[in-house]
Amino acid sequence: MMKHTFNVPDLKKIRLIVNSDAKNEADDQYAIVHALLSPQFIMKGLIGAHFGEERSQTSMMDSVKEIELLLDLMGLSGEYPVFCGAERAVEGGGLLVLGCRSGYKDMTGQCYMLPFPGPLADLCGIEVEDFTLIGPLQQAPDIQWEGGAVLKGDTFADILRVTSDSAEVLAAYASEYYAGKPALVRCKRGEGSTYYYGSVFTEAVAGALLDEIGLTSPAAEWAELPEDVELAIRTHEKTQKSYAFLMNYAHTEQTVVFRSPKRDLLTEKVLQGGFPMQPFEVCVIELS
Fold first, then answer.
1. Cα–Cα distance measured from residue 273 to residue 278, given in angstroms and rounded to the nearest whole number
2. How far apart are the two ends of the chain, measured CA to CA in Å?
3. Taking the CB of residue 11, how many other CB atoms lie within 10 A of it?
4. Can you tell me the distance from the alpha carbon of 227 to that of 219, in angstroms, rounded to the nearest whole number?
5. Any bridge partners for residue 98, and if so which?
6. CATH classification at residue 281
7. pLDDT tens readout for residues 25-80
């Protein structure tokens, strides 16, 4: 093992788990070796990831073996735990979100001679039967969501056709010649799901999709945060106490609404209800 001529203070060290499709391309080997040799990282484990079935039917295990080979060559066999990732990410409980133009080129930039989205079609439960560029003089299509909201498409419109009984239309185009055609489709695969959206994601669409998926802020139970306030949560490895770091990145005052009393470790104040954060102010909140 390489000896370093400098030390990193414990408070500056970062706990790290490497998830790598190490057998896919050569760059991952360099990244893994760098992470293992860096004194700033506390390596907690390595995970072998799959990289599809085009080149191998056992790509996840190929990556695991490649990681184990690297550890052996470095004289580190048995020093770090190596785990198997999901053989197939979605079927294993993963969530895959795709936008328009997905899956139409291979790794060399050549178009597949298949209906879009190419090799992703079965996973998504759809085919693109037509597509159009929304030109600068054209109106972006309305998209009607199941819950009643009407949002705008942007730049491209993939006009979808459902091909699987496991697929469900969550939104449809509501204007232009393709009105009534699916715009957002969810397809269940094993324990997971794929979402294919036929246009370019806008902020409004991304927010609606996050609501549909059910992803919420990790602070939702104890605070309501404005968009300009960044949140990071860290847990101390030894004490298992958790802390929230809040920073107001705006040039103006932003109000954070605390739903339950929380102590700011920097000021020793208990924050409750509406709290005005000054521009670039930082709070360190004790969570547990």
1. 16
2. 38
3. 5
4. 13
5. 196
6. 2.60.40.1180
7. 888 999 999 999 988 899 999 999 888 777 888 888 999 999 999 999 999 999 99
